[in-house]
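Aggregate trends can hide what the representation actually does to any particular protein. In the encoding step, the backbone of a single protein was reduced to a row of integers, each denoting a local shape. The record that follows shows the chain in one-letter code together with its fold in token form.

***
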Amino acid sequence: MEMLKLVIFDVDGTLIDSENIWKKSLIETGEKFGMLNLGETLFPKIIGKSGVEEESILRKSIPNNVYYDFVNFWRQLGLRMLSENIPEKPGLHEIIEYVKRKGLLIGVGTATDRISTVNRLKQIDVLKDIDYMICGDEIKNKKPCPDIYLKICEYFNVDVEEAIVIEDSCVGVEAAYRAGIPCIQVPDVIQSTSLEIEHTLSIAESLIWAIRVIDEKYYME
């Protein structure tokens, strides 16, 4: 039976339902600037993308004369919504308790900056459970580059075969795949494609389902 020592979580879209907040704030921003249906037309293009990729897509989609006002309004609105309420993903506390009960290490690898990540993990009361994390402002090569996951494994001196990644986005899945770490995808706003199905250990409907996948792979004879 394979040995598991480390579980690495993404945060936004995996532990917290932040993607839907950003989608809602984008829709409201679009309506303010006279652009409708951005939740269906623009949001799927930028979700899970790096900052550079997101900016490139936004510049092609938002008129130049309102670009900076649009982006600033959207980001401030989204951050305000997140500061007021951070919805937890179903099964969040159950999977954290499960991982702790199994005596496994808990890592976090996120594209979000450290200050925002710490605040959000505090709000959902799991910061105390995290053994180590790397945030978006602490690593040069962002997902889908594998660096963030490899560095977390290196910190714990854990082989990639002894870790597992829980992710929601396609770029996160690709990062785990390129790192050689088994990955369970719990899709958020964007559903899995055939590529994610090929590159993951399993596609789980929820974090509760992810517990079952881990149990079956590592703990059931």
